[in-house]
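Hey, can you fold this?
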Amino acid sequence: MAPDIHELYAIRYATRGAKRTDHFIGGDPHDAPMPMDYFVWVAVGPRGPVVIDTGFTAEVSAKRKRDYLRCPIESLSLLGIDPAKVETCILTHLHYDHVGSFHKLPAAMFHLQEKEMHYATGRYMRFPKLSHAFEVDDVCGIVRMNFAHRVVFHTGRAEVAPGIEVIPAGGHSAGLQFVKVFTKRGWVVLASDVTHFYENMQTGRPFTTAFHVGEMLEGFESLRKEAGGDDRRIVPGHDPKVMSLYPPMNEATRGIIVRLDEDPREA
């Protein structure tokens, strides 16, 4: 069956100031600013919208001292999408900034790698270095969703819908997965936290939050393989450059929503 063609959007919902040393294992010799943006993504095809990650809440933003710009789920209305009618949501992993507003999708089924649930509720969470990226209420909430029969667990590569695939990568979080979406420009690879910034992948230097460094490095290879060796088809999970490389959905959403199904401009 031929894959469906999707429109593909990134919604920027928060940001924070940071320095280069925050984003590379081993630090960086340059103590220059390197801000981080936070996104959720939306694929819109003939079978309805698929939301990819749900961001965090205003309360968690205040707790973690992030600059909260807008509710990521309420922002779906800018795309003409009613959050109450979204039926499919992919969670790339269970870190606080990717799952925190899940409860605002009351009808959605959530797609998650089973390994990620094991990780988030297992023995490694006794280590603060690993558990700090999770919010207990979020993890418990997804457990409750499972008991409510609203979680679809995957144990490897899977097709969520025609033209939308999930591929496990691990590394940053044990059950991390990235997403491939078929668009009018072909397959686009949403890296999520397989590579936070373009520079992590391009220089082979992983991000500082790591469960398995070797798997993080292999993740860079997986992204490139799935993108057919074309880095222009890879969209990192937190890089502010995404907002300038891709065109806005329209003038009213400039700085908020960009179209990832359009070719990026030359960097």
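Oh, and this one too while you're at it.
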Amino acid sequence: MERRDRVLWLTIDRPERRNALNWSVVRGLRAALADAKADPDVAVVVLTGAGDQAFCAGADLGTMGDAPEDGARFLDQHDARGELAGLFQEMWQLGKPTVARVQGWAVAGGFGLALACDLVVASERARFGATEIRVGLWPFMVTVPMVRSMGPKTALDLMLTGRIVEAAEGQRLGFVSRVVAHEDLDASLEELVGTLAGHSPAVTKLGRDAFYAVLDMGSAQALAHLHAMLTLTNQTEDAAEGMAAFLEKRPPSWRGR
């Protein structure tokens, strides 16, 4: 975990295991996100993996096949397997932009983790896949971030085949936001997160929350919700400041309220 100005960088630091998830990693990410949500000085969260080989290779099957505590009962094991679902929910409810920095492999649960971020910035060397079917499993939890990031039949194709997708194809399919040369990845990330951190935190939160709220709504319900959010956002100090700054031809000074 590293703070760079108003940006929090979270790094899965298990390069010897291609940054595979274990219980400690998942719980650590959830704790870090809770801290970021409560910290007004954090404007953006970047998620990445250590080293140059992998963003995250999914669950470490050697350690995540059972519940975190030895001898746990069946229902305890069931609840423990919901840790990843809880992480996804907390990412969507963070109220602040999240960006996946994908420099290598992002497969299985790691694929889902990248897609649960708002934006995915990928090196040209990045590779993605819902590969669970290859080992007799299914990407159950990963289904939700997948269908929120691409067409349902495209997601099903990837789940049924387990095939690997290169970064350029991921961008064509809609789940990669930007593809950059490997050597330009960090510079591109810095530019992007600088832009995100420079916007009104209040309006960013309201708009981002509204985006995720309407994803699962019908059109009439969604429009009613967005109508209310438009009125609410226009009552914020930041909206007034933004319009005043535009008319006065000066940079805005955000107050976050």
